[in-house]
Amino acid sequence: MVFNGVTQQLGGTGSILVDNLMVYTGTTLTVNQVPTVTGVLINNGTLKQTQTVSNATVNFLTISADKYRGVDIQTPNDLGVVTVTVQGNADSCTNDPTSPAYIKRCFSITPTNNATATLTLWATDAEMNGIDFLSGDEGALYRYVTNQWVEQARVEFGTDTNSYNYVTADVGGFSSFLLGKSGDTPTAVTYASMTSGAALWAPVSLLFLGGAALVLRKRR
User: Is 113:75 a contact under the CB 8 Å cutoff?
Assistant: First the structure.
């Protein structure tokens, strides 16, 4: 199943089973119904999902257990209807080419009610942009607040199965988010593409063909 257009949707009344799912550059795919993917999933564009979050843990853009992982939101509050967008394999999430390195995923989270929560953001090994949690780089989650990126209160970071990396942090509200190294705050404003779905993209290989189950966790 290939999506190659400006905006498309995935959904229906029955279950969706596909061998491979590929989202091309410049495409925004709204996931109204989560498919089962038996082969390869590659996101070079933007995946978008909307769900209700209230006093619960809700996983966004988690497809076939670990073929794709996007955002996990855990909160004791009523956030109402929440929309999450993830741009994958992104060349740039800010407009400053001299910004400290950050992981090549652009996240945007828009709730009905802005309140506190614990977020876990995910990225593949190929999106890490030279940042390596296994070699001593401390992961950080940054939120865009009042024209700057602000490092959030980290809970843990590490790697998980199928070449996925994550950072978990407590946040006081929602906007755009990045993953990076602790103390290396990204600079400059976000691209307009954070909401439009158009972006510049790096080449991508087939990222989801297995991976060792290697876990590293650190806490403050």
Answer: no
How far apart CA 82 and CA 60 sit, in angstroms, is: 10
Q: For residue 80, give the CATH number of its domain.
A: 2.60.220
Phi and psi at residue 80, to the nearest 5°: 70, -150
| Residue 5 vs residues 20, 124, 169, 210: alpha-carbon distances, Å | 17, 24, 34, 28
Query: What's the rounded Cα separation, in Å, for the pair 38 and 49?
Result: 20
Cα–Cα distances (Å) from 6 to 102, 145, 159, 206, in that order, read: 26, 28, 32, 22
Residue 87 within any structural domain of the chain: yes
The whole-model pTM stands at 0.85
Tell whether 3 is covered by a domain: no
pLDDT in tens, 112-158: 999 999 999 999 999 999 999 999 999 999 999 988 999 999 999 99
**Residues sharing a CB contact under 8 Å with residue 172, sequence separation 6 or more, in sequence order:** 116
